[in-house]
Amino acid sequence: QVQLVESGGGLVQAGGSLTLSCTASGFTFSRAAMAWYRQAPGKERELVATITIFRDTYYTDSVKGRFTVSRDNAENMVYLQMNSLKPEDTAVYYCAAREDGRPEYDYWGQGTQVTVSS
User: Residue 3: which of 28, 18, 23, 19 has the closest Cα?
Assistant: First the structure.
């Protein structure tokens, strides 16, 4: 059974930092690309960052230089370090996985709330 469980969300003041964690199970983590998405109230889900099996990374423009995605294949975990947080970063953050050869992110976590106060 595939599971992705996010943790680390919370309330933080603007300019602060949070680190989100995602624990994966039920699939071959080292062979899966991983991603962080977010969805703010009333907005569409947005891709935030990705990390491939080769550890190549991608960031949406609004978080470049502030967020860092990383993975630990030994622990089946992916992280999102978020610095210099802004109120517009407020959203539910989701971890997602795409197994090697698959076109879409098939596996999703339940999400963790990040709220940044001004």
Answer: 23
Q: What's the order of all strands across the beta sheet hosting 18-25? A: 3-7, 18-25, 77-82, 67-72
Buried b (16+ CB within 10 A) or exposed e, 19-39: ebbbbbeebebeebbbbbbbe
Rounded-to-integer distance, Cα 39 and Cα 91, Å = 5
The three-point CA angle 60-32-23 to 5° equals 85
* Both tokens assigned to 80: 């999102």
- Residue-wise pLDDT for 23-45, tens only, equals 999 999 999 999 999 999 999 99
Rounded to an integer, what distance in angstroms lies between the CA atom of residue 113 and that of residue 118? 16
Q: In terms of DSSP H, where are the helices of 2-112? A: none
> Residue 37 contacts by C-beta under 8 Å, 6 or more apart in sequence?
45, 46, 47, 48, 93, 94, 96
